[in-house]
Design a protein that fits this description.
Blueprint (H helix, E strand, L loop, with lengths): L2 H19 L3 H7 L5 E6 L6 H5 L7 E5 L9 H13 L4 E7 L3 H8 L6 H14 L1 H5 L4 H22 L1 H8 L5 E7 L6 E3 L7 H4 L13
Parallel strand pairs: 1-2, 1-3, 3-4
Antiparallel strand pairs: 4-5
Helix pairs in contact: 5-6
């Protein structure tokens, strides 16, 4: 049996297990999706959105990329955000990074990595913005983890600055944007306390200090 064959076997086992617990699950799922959450996370294979928060398929809409970045030139991410906000009417957008992120570490290393260097410039901009604070951190792991937190906070602000989210608030749609960090070492989420639920709050988010959280 090849590795790919094993994936199909795992899929059948999973589908049978789900049907045993809820016989009409897939029939109902096929009708429509009604998630209340959009998860913008890192592509890291160790950070699966559904499993982390204990939700079933259909309960969370997901976009992932290296280092969970939201930039206004990324039409892939913005299309997902628009679909989630305007069509699915999600009530929460969650930007979730994770400690020990390889993308963050690569940005700090400032090595020549080729194409991805263009993407990681977004993280290096955040590094420069917080250079004074980061310069006082002696441990490399602690430096990576702190920049993970600062990156999530910056991406929360970027989400809030999109025309998609601003328009949703302008028409009175209930929508909150959250910043979380996931710890691989214990499987727990940390809330950065950067929740934003209105345009007025969004106007101040970039000026708010981002306190380090208990890791």
């Amino acid at each position: 049996m090849t590795d790919i064959d094993e994936l199909f076997r795992n899929n059948r086992t999973w589908a049978e297990r789900v049907r045993a617990a809820a016989p009409d699950f897939f029939e109902q799922l096929a009708l429509q999706q009604r998630p209340e959450y959009l998860w913008i996370g890192c592509s890291d294979s160790r950070v699966p959105a559904n499993e982390i928060v204990g939700l079933l398929p259909g309960e969370i809409f997901v976009h992932r990329n290296v280092a969970n970045i939201v930039v206004h030139t990324d039409f892939n991410c913005l299309s997902v955000l628009q679909f989630a906000v305007e069509l699915l009417k999600v009530r929460h957008v969650i930007v979730c990074g994770h400690y020990g992120c390889g993308g963050i570490s690569a940005a700090l290393a400032n090595s020549d990595l080729g194409l991805i260097d263009n993407w990681l410039r977004n993280v290096r901009d955040i590094q420069r913005l917080h250079a004074e604070e980061l310069a006082d951190i002696d441990s490399h792991d602690a430096l990576v983890n702190r920049l993970c937190e600062l990156n999530v906070a910056a991406q929360v602000a970027n989400v809030c600055d999109t025309t998609i989210v601003r328009s949703a608030w302008a028409r009175g749609q209930e929508l909150s944007v959250h910043g979380w960090v996931y710890a691989l070492r214990d499987g727990l989420l940390r809330d950065l306390g950067t929740v934003v639920s209105s345009a007025d709050e969004a106007d101040t988010i970039r000026r708010r200090p981002v306190a380090p959280v208990e890791r």
